[in-house]
Amino acid sequence: MKKTFLSTIFLIFLFTRANAQWFNLNSPTSAYLFSTYFVNYDTGYAVGGDINASVFLKTVNSGLDWNIITNTQTKWLYDLVFLNDTIGLACGYDGAMYKTTDAGETWNAKPSETISWLYSIAKKPDGTVWATGQDGTLIRSTNMGDNWDPVVSS
User: Fold this and answer.
1) Residues 88-138: pLDDT tens digits?
2) Is 153 left (phi over 0), alpha (psi -120 to 50) or beta?
3) Phi and psi torsions of 95, nearest 5°
4) Contact 45, 67 (CB under 8 A)
5) E strand residue ranges, 1-154
6) What are 142-152's pLDDT values in tens digits?
7) Where do the H-state alpha helices sit in the chain?
8) Nearest C-alpha neighbor of 98 from the set 128, 116, 121
9) Which pLDDT does position 66 carry in this prediction?
10) Residue 13 CB contacts under 8 Å (≥ 6 apart), including other chains
11) Is 145 left (phi over 0), alpha (psi -120 to 50) or beta?
């Protein structure tokens, strides 16, 4: 009985390990990538870059292949969020805020009203979007990222 139990545990362990393996994917960029966001099972985005160039990537096959989205932005990006399938926001270096309304094909700069580095962006179910960053910076948008208001934080 003990031998059967141990054999069963070993097989479960082996099966679990065989199905939970990680593997490398090819990236079309050598730039740093800091964040990903998937709007559904297949479609996802990644952002990153360096101080002189933003990087936007998009996948439509669950991350197996990634394509660079051509852009002219020049700010390091740290995070992104999508409000629905087509509207997304990305934030980063020096208060950078970018918005897409066409599922990531183009990204346009939006004034964030801050020059602090923005590290994280999130949405609430009511549609309010928050971004936070350097030295306690906290900003909020109630119109899908078109305008941002500073929020006092301690």
Assistant:
1) 999 999 999 999 999 999 999 999 999 999 999 999 989 899 999 999 999
2) beta
3) 80, 15
4) no
5) 32-38, 44-50, 53-59, 67-68, 77-82, 88-92, 97-100, 108-109, 118-123, 129-133, 138-141, 149-150
6) 999 999 999 98
7) 2-19
8) 121
9) 94
10) none
11) left
How far is residue 152's CA from residue 154's CA, in Å, rounded to a whole number? 7
Q: Which amino acid is at 61?
A: N
| Residue 128, both tokens | 């309010």
Tokens of 66: 């990634």
**What does the alpha-carbon distance between residue 133 and residue 77 come to, in Å, rounded to a whole number?**
12
How does pLDDT run across 38-85, given as a tens digit for each residue?
999 999 999 998 878 889 999 999 999 999 987 777 788 999 999 999
